[in-house]
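idk why but the lab printer keeps eating my pages so im just putting this in chat instead. protein + zinc ion:
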Amino acid sequence: MKRSGSDQTKSGEVIKKAHPVQLQPPGLSFWAASSTGVAHVQERTSTEAGPDVLVTALVHGNEYSGAWALDAFLLSGLQPRRGRITAVFCNTEAFMRFDAGKPDASRFVDEDFNRVWSADLLDGPKRSTELVRAREIRPFVDRATHLLDLHSMHEPGGALLVTGMLPRNIAFAQSLGTMGQVVVDAGHADGVRMRDYGAFGDENGDRIALLLEAGQHWELASLQAARNVLMRFLVCADVIDRGDIPPGWLLPDAPPPPPVTVTHRVVARSMDFAFVQNFCGGETIRHAGTPIAHDAGEPVVTPYDDCVLVMPSVRQLRPGVTTVRLGRLA
Ligand SMILES: [Zn+2]
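predcted complex ->
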């Protein structure tokens, strides 16, 4: 099957074309030097006590929109009225390897930075580019009362707020007042995300952690979505007031849709995996048993009625890769 944005070689292999890069790489050299002593970590501190908010971008090195949003925040001169805001550009090693001809290649150097967040790995002997950087950043993650981790997606789509399973994070995300779809998701079997690390995952704790998927990595709309959610997050965390937000940065208030709870992950068994149509995420499939894809000649069907598709993508297709998450509306 020929899909837009893809070509088929003579052998039948489907090559996904990279999406156009609308955003230039953000210039991060300005933020390299830091009073914290750790490169690309910037702090803004109020004289009044308050929450300790951490905002992270470039956990994946090719996800520009969050880095642009952080850059805009730092350039704006916006200061916290209470507490502290720490801004971190995380996987700068991967980011610096960005090649516009292979824009999907610079997601990480050695391993996924968002799968190393367990004390076992961080305290252990293993070395990788990502673990070295995670160990540098760890003290800022440990002290944070609130974490907003800015990501973006392989494919175009509306913004998603990934909350993990804890009710306090779901409620916080719903209180932001954006159209962003809340996705309740337990995480990954192959490693711990920053947003699930340590006290953020304590069900009896009170720390807040959200992960934003702002839209496609290199679209201008994703930068606007990231900046909007960043500002709303800072207001809801009570480090700034709504009136402090620079003009034009807030998108209109909107009632958030009901959260979607991820129940299944569809994992590719073969390279012969294809969706039955160009899904972009957010589609609700009415009837259980509806084919949504084929894998090695077998249909992949929805397990229940009103099944929601979350972040479908075959961009990094190989056996074992998640191609779509399936969820239920709350
Ligand atoms: Zn990411």
